Amino acid sequence: MSETKATDNRVRVAIVDDHAIFRAGVRSELVAGVDVVGEADGVSDAVLLIGRTAPDVVLLDVHMPDGGGVEVIRRIADSAASAADGSPVPRFLALSVSDDPEDVVSVIRAGARGYVTKTISGPDLIDAIIRVDQGDAVFSPQLAGFVLDAFAGATAPEQDDELDLLTPREQEVLQLIARGYMYKEIARRLGISVKTVEAHTSSTLRKLQLSTRHELARWATERNLLD
Questions:
Q1: Are residues 130 and 190 in the same domain?
Q2: What are the backbone dihedrals phi and psi of residue 112, each rounded to the nearest 5 degrees, phi first?
Q3: Does residue 227 belong to any structural domain of this protein?
Q4: Torsion of the alpha carbons at 181, 61, 142 and 138, rounded to the nearest 10
Q5: Which pTM was predicted?
Q6: What is the pLDDT of residues 92-129, one digit of tens each?
Q7: Among the listed residues 89, 85, 204, the one whose alpha carbon sits nearest the alpha carbon of residue 196
Q8: Pick from 218, 214, 219: which is nearest to 166 by CA?
Q9: Residues 146 and 168 reside in one and the same domain
C-alpha cells in the first residue's frame, strides 16, 4: 500500500488492484489529469487506504482475493453507516479486464457508480473518473446494455410514507448525511448556509422521530437512498 499527498484541487483517486505492474501503468496514465493519493493490492489494504486518504474516487479491480471489489464497497459502506465522524464516502469506479455481465451487475448492485474495461485509454479513464466524481454513472459502451437489462425489470419502490414527510431539500440533506458528509461540505454542495443544513437536519430528525446523525444514516441506508 502506497500513498501520495495531493497537491491541488483535482479529483483525488485511490487505485486498488492486485497487480503492481498494472497499478504503475494506471498511475502513469492518470497523473496528467487527477491526483493519485495511494494504491492498495487487496481488500484489507484498500479499506485502510481509503480511511487514511479519503479519496474522491476509488478505481477498483473486480477480481481480487478475499471478495474483490464488491467486498471493498461493502466494507466501506458498513464503516460509513457506523461512523460518527461524518467522513465522506468515496465513489467507486470499477476497472476490470472482465466484461462478464455477472461481474458488471454485481459490482453496480454493490454500489459502484460505473464500470469500464482495462482496454480504456488514459484520457478516457481520466474523463470517466471526473464524471463519476461529479455524480454521473459511467460505463464502457458495450457494458451499458447489461446494466439496463438487469435493472429494467426492477419494480418501482413502494410508497414510503415517512419519506414523504420530508421536503425535497430535507431529502437532499439526508442523502448527503447518509453518505458521510459534514455539515460544511453539505452546505457547499447545496449552496446553502451551515445553519440551514442544521435546521433541515433538526427538522428531519423530528419528523422521523430519530435522535442522531448515525440513526439518520442507517434509516437512509435501509431505504437505499444513498445513490
A1: no
A2: -65, 150
A3: no
A4: 10
A5: 0.64
A6: 999 999 888 888 888 888 889 999 999 999 999 999 99
A7: 204
A8: 219
A9: no
